Amino acid sequence: MAESVNELLAAIAAEVRSCTACPLHETRTRAVPGEGAADAAVAFIGEAPGGDEDRQGRPFVGRSGQFLRHTIRQVGWREEDVFIGNVLKCRPPGNRDPQDEEIKACQHFLMAQLVLLQPSVIVTLGRFSLHLLVDTRLQISKVRGQHLRKDGQLYLPTYHPSAILRNNNLQPDFYRDLVVAKKLSTA
Questions:
Q1: Torsion angle defined by CA atoms of residues 22, 36, 172 and 97, in that order, rounded to the nearest 10 degrees
Q2: Cβ neighbourhood burial of 45 (10 Å; 0-12, 13-18, 19+)
Q3: Within 10 Å of residue 108's Cβ, how many Cβ atoms?
Q4: Residue 179: CB partners within 8 Å, gap ≥ 6?
Q5: Fewer Cβ within 10 Å of end Cβ, the chain: N or C?
Q6: How far apart (Å, rounded) are the C-alpha atoms in residues 144 and 124?
Q7: What CATH number is attached to the domain comprising 53?
Q8: What number of other Cβ atoms are within 10 A of residue 94's Cβ?
């Protein structure tokens, strides 16, 4: 089963790399499909690739990504056992926020990945993934760390790692959220 999921995830990644559905394809260096295990119990979903990600074609490899990956390991996961991705698969110019049209053009890729992965828990990193996957009315500051269910899927919203780099006081909450996600993913 994992082999066919890997093949389907690879097919989605190939589609992402050739996508021209929105203007972001004109400014990208590399599309960033996401990466991780076909049988990942947890998926970490952010908003969009940054400059380092655009250059490398991999999600969360810049400063905030290094922090995320370090915390993932600290909590007890191996990076190769989780899935890491974003709502958008191409970098918005100047790291601006994703626009609604871009999210609409790109969301089917993420949704298809999540259907294939069927993770026990999805950790939404920041507001864009929270709004797309759970509810646009929710505020990350009000629901961070709570277990939310939608259509049978368990979500755990937390801060985006870049927010923690800007405000180190958020780091203990982020760590606790990942500890909870680890427990939920193995329950």
A1: 0
A2: buried
A3: 12
A4: 75
A5: N
A6: 9
A7: 3.40.470.10
A8: 7
H/E element, 148 = strand 148-150
Q: Cα separation of 99 and 112, whole Å?
A: 20
- Its domain, for residue 176, covers 2-186
pLDDT digits (tens, 9 = 90+) for 34-87: 999 999 999 999 999 999 999 999 999 999 999 999 999 999 999 889 999 999
* 47: its two tokens: 């908003």
Q: Using CB atoms within 10 A of its CB, is residue 168 exposed (0-12), middle (13-18) or buried (19+)? A: exposed
Q: Tell me the pTM.
A: 0.96
Answer for the pair 132, 87: CB distance below 8 angstroms, yes or no.
yes
Q: What would the pLDDT profile of 103-124 be if each residue is shown by its tens digit?
A: 999 999 999 999 999 999 999 9
H or E segment and range at residue 110: helix 100-117
Query: At residue 35, what is the residue type?
Result: E
Among candidates 90, 95, 157, which has minimal Cα distance to 122? 157
Q: Could you give the CA distance from residue 89 to residue 109 in angstroms, rounded to a whole number? A: 8
